[in-house]
Amino acid sequence: MNLTYEPITLDLKTTFRIAHGASDQRHNVITHLDEGLGEAAAVSYHGESQQGIMEYLSRITLSDDPFQLEDVLNSLPVGSQAARASIDIALHDLWGKRLGQPLYRLLGLNPSRAPQTSFTIAMDSPEAMAQRAKDAKMPIIKIKVGGAEDEKCVRAIREAFDGELCVDANAGWTREQAKDLIPRLMQYKLAFVEQPLPKGDIEGLKWLRDQKFGVPIFADEPIKVARDVAAHASAVDGVVIKLMKSGGLREAIRSIHTARALGMQVMIGCMVETSIGVTAAAHIASLADYADLDGPLLIKNDPYRGVKYDGAKLILPEGNGLGVTIP
C-alpha cells in the first residue's frame, strides 16, 4: 500500500477558546493510503504537532494487504496517536472501497441509531456565548468552561436557550472549584459535566463523584485506549472516546465495548477536524449514548464532503468506505 500525506491548515469560524488556550487555526494532516483517506488532528495539549505527525508518518512502511487490518495496525510503532489514527481511518476507508460497501455496513452498525450531535460554544463573554447558542439553532449545546465567569456564561446561555446543556471544563477546575461550581450549575439543568479536574487525578474524580451531585461526570482528556477506560471505571459515570486519542476506529470500538462492559456511558467526540475524521467517527456513533461531532461546523474551509447535518441529526454519505468526497 502506498502511504502519502499532506499538511492542511483549517480556519475556524470563530476563535476557539477553551481552558487550555485559544486558536483561530488548526494544523492537521491528511493521509492517503492508496485510495483511502485519513486525517490526523494536531492538538498541542495532547502532545501532538503537525510536524511530529508527519515525522511519524515518514517512518512508516505498510504491507500490501489492506484486509489484514489487525496485523497492519499492530505493526505500527509507538508514537503519535493522531498519526496512527490517520492510518487506521485511511485503512478502513480503503477496506470499504475495495469491498464496495459503506464502513458502517462492514461493521454491522445501523447509522439511524446514532444520537444527535451537540454543538460546541467556545469560551467568550457571557453575551457572545449566549448569542452563539441562540444562533446555532441546535437542540444540544456543549459549553466550554474553565474561566473566571463560568456561572455567568452558563446562566446567559440558559436564558437564551431551552434545549439540552452540558459543560466541558477541559481539566480547568481544581477539586474545590468543581465542588463549589457543579451544585450551582445544576440549577441550569445540565445533562453531564465533562472533565472537571486535571488529567491524571483519578482519585479526585472519584471523590467528586462521591459527592453525589445528581449529574453524571465524564472523563475525556485521560481516556485514550481501553485500559484508560478501565482505570476510570470507579471514578466517573462516562467516558469521551475520540479517534485522535485512541489511535483510530479499531481501538475506539474496543474502548466503547470496555466502557459498556463496565456499565459506563459513552460520548463519541472529535477534535477540530475536517469531514474525513468526523465522518469516520460518525460511522460508529450508533454505539454511543452521546455525540459531539461538530468539527466541520466549526471551520470555514473544509475541502471534503462527508457527514451531513439535518439540524443535529447525523446523515452519513452513501458512498463506499467513509463515503467522503472532494466536491
What can you tell me about this protein's structure?
The protein is of the alpha/beta class. It has 2 domains: 3-100, Enolase-like, domain 1 (2-Layer Sandwich), CATH 3.30.390; 106-315, Enolase-like C-terminal domain (TIM Barrel, Alpha-Beta Barrel), CATH 3.20.20.120. It is 34% helix and 23% strand. It has helices spanning 50-58, 69-74, 81-99, 103-106, 126-136, 150-160, 175-185, 202-209, 226-231, 243-246, 249-261, 275-282, and strands at residues 3-18, 21-33, 36-40, 119-121, 140-144, 164-168, 190-194, 217-219, 238-242, 265-269, 290-292, 308-310, 313-315. The strands form 3 sheets. The chain has an 8-stranded parallel sheet with strand order 4-5-6-7-8-9-10-11. Helix 7 links the parallel strand 6 and strand 7. The chain is globular. The two termini are 25 Å apart. The relative contact order is 0.16. The model has no long low-confidence stretch (mean pLDDT 96).
